[in-house]
């Protein structure tokens, strides 16, 4: 999966807020913009739409125990990889 996403891979810690993940992935430039994306139904995690501003990313959300695929809009994909 890391080869597929290449430089769109971002290392994240467990318990990170979704809006912080958007900023860390450079998908949003500010918390305000990240909140707008989330409430506008344009963010999904592993193919599931997320509209909850209080959403935290945990290993329970992970694919294969360490990857989270973030999609913003129609064509913007990012890979979150949990650090050990």
Tell me briefly what this model is:
With 84 residues, the protein is an alpha+beta fold. The protein contains 3 helices and 7 strands.
Question: Any descriptors?
Answer:
two-stranded antiparallel ribbon; 7 strands; 3 helices; alpha+beta; 24% helix; 84 residues; five-stranded mixed sheet; 31% strand; single chain
Structural class assignment:
alpha+beta
Q: What is the percent of helical residues?
A: 10-25%
- SSE pattern, N- to C-terminal: HEEHHEEEEE
> How many distinct beta strands?
7
| Helix run count | 3
Oligomeric category = single chain
| Computed CA radius of gyration, to the nearest angstrom | 11 Å
Mean of residue pLDDT values: 93
Shape descriptor reads globular
Largest sheet: 5 strands, mixed
Question: What portion of residues belong to β-strands?
Answer: 25-35%
Widest sheet, order of strands: 1-7-6-3-4
Straight-line N-to-C gap: 17 Å
pLDDT < 50 stretches: none
């Amino acid at each position: 999966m890391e080869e597929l996403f290449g430089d769109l891979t971002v290392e994240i810690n467990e318990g990170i807020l979704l809006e912080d993940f958007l900023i860390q992935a450079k998908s949003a430039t500010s918390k305000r913009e990240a909140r707008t994306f989330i409430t506008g139904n344009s963010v999904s995690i592993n193919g599931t739409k997320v509209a909850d501003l209080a959403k935290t990313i945990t290993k329970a959300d992970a694919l294969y125990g360490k990857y989270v695929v973030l999609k913003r809009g129609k064509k913007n994909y990012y890979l979150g990889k949990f650090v050990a």
